[in-house]
Amino acid sequence: MEYNYTDSLKTRLRRIEGQVRGVLRLMDEGKPCKEVVAQLSAVRNASDKALAQMVAENLQQCIMAEQEAGNKDTDKLVKEAIELLVKCR
Fold it and tell me: Which PANTHER family does the record cross-reference, listed alphabetically (predicted)?
């Protein structure tokens, strides 16, 4: 199955990309560690949310595909999604 990434997910990742560039700029400017760490924390939180969004959207697409194929037992897909989320932490 080919996965279609949503525009909202791509937008979220572009925003994260901008945040990372901002962190690098702070470092180049010699800003205090506290400022850099605060921005890195924001990057981490944003990437966690993007990851969760990606897994949720993928799970939804996989479940729909399985149901269209006549398979009503989607427990395995849900377990795989949970494992992905746990693995990422």
Answer: TRANSCRIPTIONAL REPRESSOR FRMR, TRANSCRIPTIONAL REPRESSOR FRMR-RELATED
Determine if the pTM surpasses 0.85.
no
Q: How far apart are CA 47 and CA 53, in angstroms?
A: 10
Q: What share of the chain is helix, strand, coil (3-state, %, to 5)?
A: 80, 0, 20
Using alpha carbons only, what angle is made at residue 27 by residues 22 and 28, rounded to the nearest 5 degrees?
A: 95
CATH class of 7-87: mainly alpha
**In the chain, where are the structural domains located?**
7-87
Q: What are the pLDDT digits (tens) for 8-58?
A: 999 999 999 999 999 999 999 999 999 999 999 999 999 999 988 888 888
Phi/psi at 30 (nearest 5 deg)? 70, 30
